[in-house]
Design goal:
The complex is a heterodimer of chains A (240) and B (547).
Chain A lengths: L7 E6 L2 E6 L4 H7 L23 E4 L6 E2 L10 E3 L3 H17 L14 H8 L16 E2 L5 E4 L8 H10 L4 E4 L6 E4 L16 H5 L5 E3 L13 H12 L1
Parallel strand pairs in A: 1-5
Antiparallel strand pairs in A: 1-2, 3-4, 3-5, 6-7, 7-10, 8-9
Chain B lengths: L2 H18 L1 E6 L2 H5 L2 H14 L6 E6 L11 E3 L5 E2 L7 H6 L10 E2 L4 H4 L17 H6 L4 H9 L2 H11 L11 H10 L6 E6 L8 H8 L1 H15 L3 E7 L3 H16 L15 E7 L8 H8 L23 E5 H13 L1 H5 L9 E8 L5 E6 L4 H8 L9 E6 L5 E4 L9 H6 L8 E6 L4 H15 L5 H18 L5 H17 L3 H5 L2 H19 L17
Helix pairs in contact in B: 7-11, 7-14, 8-9, 8-11, 10-12, 11-14, 18-19, 18-22, 19-20, 20-22
Classes of the chains: A alpha+beta (240), B alpha/beta (547).
Chain lengths: 240, 547
C-alpha cells in the first residue's frame, strides 16, 4: 500500500514558476531547479536547524525574512532568493563568522575545499570589516584517526546531527553559550577517551570547514566525501 | 471535591478567620524576607504567645504588599494601618498597638497615590492571603472560576469569554489570548499540553515572582481552566531555579490542590483530569523564549528553533501546546468569575485590563504595582512611583527589559498600551520598568543591555551570537571615548542585521536598547565620539582618547 501521496503545489521562486510536493522545503525545490541559495548549516540527509541564517529569503506578504531550509512550500507562494538586502546580510553574516574564531585559510587543511571559504568567495567577501576576536581555543588531537580544531569551527552542528541522526551514537553535542559555545565529545572529555564514539568518521566528512579533519593531512589536502549521506538516507527510506 | 464541599470549605474558613479576630499580616515575599521579614514574623508570633493581646489576634504570613522599597511590611488586617521597615525588636511595640493607637514611628501611609491609584485584579489577593494555605485562597472565591468552567461552561464558552475579555499575552508580545487558546483547542491530537512560562529573566523585573510567591493557587486555577478549554490534561510550570521561594510555594500549592481534588484526576467530580508538574530552569535567559523553554522541558539543550510550526500546532514532544505567561494565567479566574465584558471595560481600545509593573531604578517607591492599561507613564512614575529621589531630573524609562527601549520625557503623557509603546520604539514586555535620572549615561545603559544579550545568547544562530559580541565591543569603545563615526555607522548596520536575521526573539530584539537610545539620545553617542566626553559623567574615558 502506498502512503497518501502528497499534494503538488506551484509557487514562484525568483520569478520562475516551479512545482513542488507540499512537504518539500523552499531550499529543496530551489536546488531541484538550479536556483542557488547559500547555506552552511543545512546538509541534505540531516535535519534542518535554521541556524546559519544564510538561506534567509523574502516571501511576498511576510515582513520577516524566512530560512529556506525549514520553510515549507505553499501554493502560490512568491519567494525571492536574491536581493540587495539579502546579499548584504549574507555577506555580513559570513564576515561575522570569519571574525569570530581563527580562520586562517593559508595554513588550513581544508583550504580550497571549505564551505565557509567558498561561500565567502561566492558572496564576494573580500574584506572583514569587523574586529577579529582572535580567541584562544583548544585543539583536540586525542583521537587515533581524527582531530578537532575549535579555531575553525563555525558551530553549524552538522557533526552533532550526523552523529545523532545517522550514526546513532550522539557523541557530539554543544556546551556553553554565545561565543563561548563549543562542540564537545561525550561529557566534554577528550575525543580519544570517548566511549560512545564509533570512529565512523561521518562527523569529519560533513564538517564544512577544517575543524574536523583526518590525521595525516597537510594544508589543503583534506577533501571531504559526503556522498554517503544521501545514499544512506535513500537506502533507509527504501527499507522502511 | 464537589462544588458543595468547596462552598463549605470557604464558609468554614471565613468563620475561622472571623473567630481568629485581628490578623497581623507580615509580608513573606522574597523582597521583605531578604530584609528580615521572616524574623519579624517569628518575633511577633513569639510575642503573641508569651503575652496574649487583650482580644483574639494572630500573625499571618502573606504575599507581596507592593511597596518593596519600605520592607519588611506589616499590616493590621487587610485594610488596617501598615507599618514599614519593621524590625524584630519592634514586635512588642507593634503588639501593643492592637489595643491602642497606631504606632506613629513605623506607620506607612496607605492613602498615598501608590496605594490609591492602583487597580488590582491579578494582585487582588497579594498581601492578603497566606500563599501557603489553599483554604485562605478558597475563602476569597478561589477555585470558583474553575468550578464554574467545569460545571456550567463548555470549552467553547470559556474561549469565547476569554476572547471577549480582550486579554493579550502578558509575556511581552501581546498576542491575543483567546485566539491562542482557540488555535490549540482546534488542533487535533490525542495529547495536548499547557505550559506556564515562569522563566522571568529581564533585569529589574519581578512581577511573576511576586505573583507566584503571593498567590500561587491563582495561577494553578488559571492553568486548569485553560487545560479544560483547550483539551489538555498535562501541564508544566517552567520556573527559574533562582526563585526558590516561588518554587517552594508552588510545590505546596500543587500538593494542597491535589489533596483537595482541585487538581489531579476527576476534578470536582467531573471527567476532567489535570496534572501540573514543575520544571526548573537552569539559569538561561533564552529559556524564556517559548521554543527554547519547551526544548528545555523535554530535557534538551535550551535553544530556540525556527517557527512555524508554532507551539499551538507542534509544541512539547510535537504535540499541540498552549504556552502562556504567569500573569496571563493569573488573569483568567477573575475573567471567568466576572465575565469577559467586565474585563474589557477596563483599559484602552486595543489593550484591555490591567498590567503589573515592577518599578525599579531611580524611583522613590520601588515595588510592584498594578495599573489599568491606558494610564500614562507620568502617572506611574511621578504619582504612584513618587518621582525621582534626591531631587534629580528624570531622563528616561526603560520598559521591556533587554528587548525593550528607553522612553524619553516627551512621551511621558502617552497612554500606556501595547501599541503606543511599540510606536515609540519600546515594548510592553513582561512589565519591568527601570527609571533613569540625569546621572545615567544612555550609551552606558545600551552597553549594559547589550552585555546582557551577548552573555545570554545561546550561540545557535550567527547574527545573535557574533553580532551581539561585535555590537558590545563597539559600545564599549564608544563609552571609553575610543570610537570613530565609522564605528557608529557599523553599530547601526549591525543593529539592522541582528534585528532582521536572528533566529528567535532574543536576537531579533537585542538591538532595541541601542536603536531606541540612538533615536532619542543620539547626541550622547556623538558627545562620546566627537568630544570624547560622557555628558552624564558616568563613563571613564580612556586617556589615549583625549583630543
Amino acid at each position: 500500500m502506498n502512503p497518501v501521496t502528497p499534494r503538488v503545489v506551484t509557487l514562484v521562486i525568483d520569478g520562475k514558476d516551479v512545482s513542488a510536493r507540499e512537504n518539500e522545503t523552499v531550499l529543496q525545490v530551489a536546488r531541484e531547479h538550479d536556483i542557488p541559495i547559500p547555506t552552511l548549516c543545512a546538509l541534505e540527509g540531516l535535519s534542518s536547524v535554521g541556524a546559519c541564517r544564510l538561506c534567509l529569503v523574502e516571501v511576498a506578504g511576510t515582513p520577516k525574512l524566512l530560512p529556506a531550509c525549514v520553510l515549507k512550500v505553499e501554493e502560490r507562494m512568491k519567494v525571492q532568493t536574491q536581493s540587495e538586502r539579502l546579499v548584504k546580510y549574507r555577506k555580513m553574516i559570513v564576515e561575522l563568522l570569519l571574525s569570530e574564531r581563527n580562520h586562517i585559510c593559508s595554513v588550513c587543511v581544508s583550504n580550497m575545499h571549505c564551505d565557509l571559504q567558498s561561500q565567502a568567495m561566492v558572496l564576494g567577501v573580500t574584506h572583514v570589516r569587523y574586529a577579529y576576536r582572535y580567541p584562544s581555543l583548544p585543539f583536540d588531537g586525542s583521537h587515533r584517526r581524527f582531530r578537532m580544531d575549535h579555531n575553525r569551527c563555525i558551530l553549524c552542528t552538522r557533526c552533532v546531527r550526523v552523529c545523532d541522526e545517522i550514526e546513532g551514537a550522539h557523541t557530539w553535542d554543544v556546551m556553553g553559550r554565545g561565543t563561548g559555545a563549543r562542540v564537545i565529545t561525550d561529557l566534554n572529555q577528550p575525543w580519544g577517551d570517548s566511549e560512545s564514539c564509533t570512529s565512523c568518521g561521518k562527523c569529519v566528512q560533513v564538517c564544512p570547514t577544517g575543524a574536523l579533519s583526518d590525521k595525516g593531512k597537510a594544508v589543503a589536502e583534506m577533501i571531504k566525501k559526503r556522498q554517503f549521506l544521501p545514499y544512506l538516507t535513500l537506502m533507509r527510506e527504501e527499507k522502511s | 471535591m464537589t462544588p458543595e464541599e468547596l462552598h463549605d470549605l470557604a464558609i468554614r474558613e471565613k468563620n475561622t478567620q472571623a473567630e481568629a479576630g485581628t490578623t497581623l499580616n507580615v509580608c513573606m515575599a522574597a523582597g521583605c524576607m531578604s530584609s528580615g521579614g521572616d524574623k519579624v514574623k517569628e518575633a511577633l508570633t513569639k510575642g503573641l504567645t508569651s503575652a496574649p493581646a487583650g482580644k483574639p489576634c494572630r500573625v499571618k504570613g502573606v504575599g507581596c504588599m507592593g511597596l518593596c522599597e519600605a520592607g519588611p511590611l506589616v499590616q493590621v488586617g487587610s485594610d488596617g494601618p501598615m507599618y514599614k521597615e519593621v524590625k524584630a525588636e519592634d514586635s512588642s511595640d507593634l503588639l501593643k498597638t492592637l489595643s491602642g493607637a497606631p504606632l506613629k514611628r513605623l506607620l506607612c501611609p496607605t492613602d498615598t497615590p501608590f496605594f490609591k491609584r492602583q487597580k488590582k485584579i491579578v494582585l487582588e489577593n497579594c498581601g492578603i492571603v497566606d500563599p501557603e494555605r489553599v483554604e485562605d485562597y478558597v475563602a476569597r472565591d478561589g477555585y470558583t472560576a474553575l468550578l464554574k468552567a467545569l460545571n456550567h461552561m463548555s470549552p467553547a464558552d470559556i474561549i469565547q469569554e476569554v476572547t471577549t475579555s480582550g486579554l493579550r499575552g502578558r509575556g511581552g508580545a501581546g498576542f491575543p489570548t483567546g485566539l491562542k487558546w482557540n488555535t490549540v483547542a482546534k488542533a487535533q491530537s490525542d495529547l495536548k499540553y499547557v505550559v506556564c512560562n515562569a522563566d522571568e529573566g529581564d533585569p529589574g523585573a519581578f512581577m511573576d515572582r511576586s505573583v507566584l510567591e503571593s498567590d500561587p493557587h491563582r495561577v494553578l486555577e488559571g492553568m486548569a481552566i485553560a487545560g479544560f478549554a483547550v483539551g489538555a490534561s498535562k501541564a508544566y510550570i517552567y520556573v527559574r531555579a533562582e526563585y526558590p521561594l516561588a518554587v517552594k510555594r508552588l510545590q505546596i500549592a500543587i500538593r494542597q490542590a491535589e489533596k483537595l481534588g482541585l487538581l489531579g484526576q476527576n476534578i470536582m467530580g467531573t471527567t476532567f483530569n489535570f496534572n501540573i508538574q514543575l520544571r526548573m530552569g537552569a539559569g538561561a535567559f533564552v529559556c524564556g523564549e517559548e521554543t527554547a523553554l519547551m526544548a528545555s522541558i523535554e530535557g534538551k539543550r535550551g535553544t530556540p528553533r525556527p517557527r512555524p510550526p508554532f507551539p499551538a500546532q507542534s509544541g512539547l514532544w510535537g504535540k499541540p501546546t498552549l504556552i502562556n505567561n504567569v500573569e496571563t494565567f493569573a488573569n483568567i479566574p477573575p475573567i471567568l468569575r466576572n465575565g469577559g465584558a467586565w474585563y474589557a471595560s477596563i483599559g484602552t481600545e486595543k489593550s484591555k485590563g490591567t498590567k503589573v509593573f515592577a518599578l525599579a531604578g531611580k524611583i522613590t517607591n520601588t515595588g510592584l504595582i498594578e495599573v489599568p492599561m491606558g494610564i500614562t507613564l507620568r502617572e506611574i512614575i511621578f504619582d504612584i512611583g513618587g518621582g525621582i529621589p534626591d531631587g534629580k531630573k528624570f531622563k528616561a524609562v526603560q520598559t521591556g527589559g533587554p528587548s525593550g527601549g528607553c522612553i524619553p520625557e516627551q512621551f511621558l503623557d502617552m497612554p500606556l498600551d501595547y501599541d503606543s509603546l511599540a510606536k515609540v520604539g519600546s515594548i510592553m514586555g513582561s512589565g519591568g520598568m527601570i527609571v533613569m535620572d540625569e546621572t545615567s549615561c544612555m550609551v552606558d545603559v545600551a552597553r549594559y543591555f547589550m552585555d546582557f544579550c551577548m552573555t545570554e545568547s545561546c550561540g545557535k544562530c550567527i547574527p545573535c551570537r557574533v553580532g551581539t559580541t561585535q555590537m558590545h565591543r563597539l559600545l564599549v569603545q564608544i563609552t571609553q571615548g575610543l570610537a570613530t563615526p565609522a564605528d557608529l555607522a557599523q553599530l547601526e548596520e549591525l543593529c539592522d542585521l541582528v534585528k532582521n536575521t536572528s533566529l528567535c526573539g532574543l536576537g531579533q530584539t537585542s538591538p532595541n536598547p541601542v536603536v531606541s537610545t540612538l533615536r532619542y539620545f543620539r547626541h550622547e553617542y556623538e558627545a562620546h565620539i566627537r568630544d570624547r566626553k560622557c555628558p552624564a559623567g558616568r563613563c571613564t574615558i580612556k586617556e589615549e582618547a583625549a583630543v
